[in-house]
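Folds abound. A case:
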Amino acid sequence: MPKCNNCGRRFGYSHVLKTVSALSGYRSMVCPACQHAHTITLASRFAVSLLVVVFPLLIRMMFFPEQPLPETLALVLLIAVCALFFTPLLVKVEK
């Protein structure tokens, strides 16, 4: 879990999850203790994208190669949603 570079307090899981979700567009994370703004690093954004987009498609291609994508779309979406819940553990922040 990322922590504030100014005061050292760790950001909450739900706070980080809201920040990396698709609806927020990687907005700045503000520390609840010192109100210092942090941005998510480019490497973290890349890792989150790989985990949420590429990983489910690779799993689908490895285990269900002969089925067309529309038939396995529910599985791909389920894996993507599950992967999204692991993203706060990968996120790094900078000032």
